[in-house]
Design goal:
Mean pLDDT: 89
Helix content: over 70%
Distance between the termini: 36 Å
Number of strands: 0
Shape: flat
Number of domains: 1
Largest sheet: none
Low-confidence stretches: none
Number of helices: 2
């Protein structure tokens, strides 16, 4: 089965991607811990709010593109 991105998965690329992901995830955790050290509930609320906002934006883009493609195909 081909990968979802249709790109060949080379070991070097995979290693670079893993190190990058681990680095920025660790940095986000460290900065979030420092910023919300005294109020973890606020940190949870901000994290959930950001996650829901990003998801809603992605779905809005998909919706608009789908409608645009349907309008172009129809006419």
């Amino acid at each position: 089965m081909p990968p979802a991105t249709r790109l060949p998965a080379s070991p070097c690329f995979t290693a670079i991607a893993a190190v990058t992901w681990a680095g920025y995830s660790g940095l986000i955790g460290y900065l979030g811990g420092a910023a919300f050290e005294s109020n973890s509930t606020l940190g949870l609320a901000v994290g959930l709010g950001l996650a829901l906002s990003i998801t809603a934006l992605g779905e809005l883009v998909r919706y608009v593109l789908r409608r645009r493609r349907a309008a172009t195909a129809a006419g």
